[in-house]
Amino acid sequence: MSADGGGDRHAPLIAAHDVGVRRDGKTLLEHVNIEVAQDEIVTLIGPNGAGKTTLIRVLLGVTAPDTGTVQRRAGLRIGYVPQRFEADPVLPLTLARFLTLGSKRPAAGALERILEETGIAALRGAPLHTLSGGELQRAVLARALLRAPELLILDEPVQGVDFSGQLDLYDLVGRLQRDYGCGVLMVSHDLHVVMRATDRVVCINRHLCCAGRPEAVSRHPEYVSLFGPRAGELAVYTHEHDHAHDLAGHVVPADEAGHTHNHAHDHAEAHAGTHAGTHVGAHVGAHEKKAPDA
Amino acid sequence: MPENFVLRALVGGIGIALVTGPLGCFVVWRRMAYFGSSIAHGALLGVALGLLFGLGLTPAVLAVSVVLALLLILLQRQRLLATDTLLGILAHAALAFGLIALALMEGVRVDLMAYLFGDVLSIGWADIAWIYGGGALALAALAYVWTPLLAATLNEELARAEGHPVGRARIVLMLLIALVVAIAMKIVGVLLIVSLLIIPAAAARGFARTPEAMALLAAGVGVFAVLGGIAASMAWDWPAGPAIVAAATMLFLASLVAGAGRRAVERG
Q1: pLDDT of residue A134
Q2: Which residues contact A137 (CB under 8 A, 6 or more apart)?
């Protein structure tokens, strides 16, 4: 596998070549390349609708790409932290059972060690639905770690977690990456927060925009055009619909009401002094109800 | 020694309760109550077809239930209409065609009430054979898909990423519900079947800390509901199917009161 002769350690754990995905006549991804090696943290960024989650699903093997290939190291163990995880009170489950559900019996002491590392040991007997958003994130992370992953994939792991909680979680991921020596692929739409924890950044917007070290990517023309000129200096971008501030507080026709809500929210976030707009997508998603199943 | 028909009713009812308890937990966890109702209503078409072609009623109902479940799986591949809409179409279409077929059959006197509300006191040993054969099959299949189904119930995306056969487990669950509807119809009737799936599971929720405990408790609640319902039916001449559902409802209410009392004690 290691064509560069750099030894197995530098051979990619997973590599997607020229991946394309089409659904319902719409191109979700085209000509995207990405690889993650052991011992590195790669961050995948892109605006909303850029196909980040689609690419993750391709890497996980859940979605088959229409074009291109995905190569995994033989027997690769992947730990996955999905974008959204809610604990339904209807299902009785303790934290400890949640961690071990559906996996082989973990090595002796592994469960205790991981509970300690993720800081949720005191909650092991607690019903899952009583955990807070931040605790639940750590629980899902712990569940992924319990599978002794060689590659950890986290899809926007900080949704629903406050700003300091986000920093804590990224610090934790960085520490765990060093301790476990695994590769990490993180999805984010906020380069600012992940910058110090990441080795390489891959920026996509349905196609591959640019890739490289965070500082290089933040100055790349395609990155700047996607996220605005200020993104380079601040390494943070404002929401792409940032033309709307003049609407806040004004009465608008009903068919634009949905937009207005988002923009008003966007505006409020900006005044709150944090990175404007980056929470909008998360809030919209959080309002989706759990659909009945059949 | 109770009379023979009472004994058969008890044996048959308990057999059903032992299956609907664990299976009903998944109906509650995965919000499939409307799916169960739809399959049950559609089962009336099975009754009509069974009478029309002189088939046994249980196999005919089973066939129609399974076909409805498979049709739903097929229709779910399109994304313009939601599942509850599809279920509403399938269930009511099957019900309507079933009623038309029953009305057109001349010379066949059909006691519709027996199918709508069950007639547990008239079940025979052949029905009991169906209940225990089908029930054992359903429990074995449920045990087989238990872990992937539980993982998918927890979070479908996570389960898929971890390599659980999510789609297959879901189809198995739908077919099992169709199977249980078919074998339980004689006990409580098509209008009340879903109550045996959801009420015992709902009563068990407050007292379970694990999914498995909830499944066992639900089976226990169901058994007591059958015992209480048939006893009430004997004592006061209540219709047996509704009496079983009434007993289950009383147990559910008792579970609410007991749960509230326990929380009050824990708070001190």
Answers
A1: 83
A2: A81, A85, A157, A158, A160, A161, A165, A169
Angstrom distances, CA of residue B15 to CA of B21, B119, B139, B180: 10, 15, 11, 11
- A206-215 pLDDT, tens digit per residue, is 888 888 887 7
Please say whether the structural domain B4-190 has been given the CATH code 3.40.50.1370.
Answer: no
- ipTM of this predicted structure: 0.88
Q: Hey, is the C-beta of B42 within 8 angstroms of any chain A C-beta?
A: no
Q: Looking at residue B116, what DSSP letter applies? A: H
Average pLDDT, chain A: 74
Does residue B192 sit in helix, strand or coil?
Answer: coil
DSSP letter at B212?
H
Question: What crossing angle do the helices spanning A163-180 and A133-146 adopt, rounded to 10°?
Answer: 10
Chain B residues in contact with A290 (beta carbon < 8 A): 31
- Inspect the interface and report whether the beta carbons of A62 and B157 lie closer than 8 Å: yes
Determine, for residues A60 and B32 on separate chains, whether the beta-carbon distance falls below 8 Å.
Answer: no
User: What Cα–Cα distance (Å) separates residue A25 from each residue in A123, B109, B242, B258?
Assistant: 47, 55, 52, 55
Of residues A80, A85, A91, nearest to B211 (C-beta): A91
B155–A contact, CB cutoff 8 A: yes
How far, in Å, CA of A166 to CA of A144, rounded?
18
- What are B60-73's pLDDT values in tens digits? 999 999 999 999 99
**DSSP H helical segments within B30-163, as ranges?**
33-52, 57-75, 83-104, 112-117, 125-154, 156-161
Q: Which of A278, A203, A204 is nearest to A236 (CA)?
A: A278
Cβ atoms within 10 Å of B2's Cβ, excluding its own? 11
CA distances from A264 to A91, A169, A248, A254, A267 (A): 37, 29, 5, 15, 5
Q: Structure pTM?
A: 0.81
- Alpha-carbon torsion B111, B117, B120, B124, what sign? positive
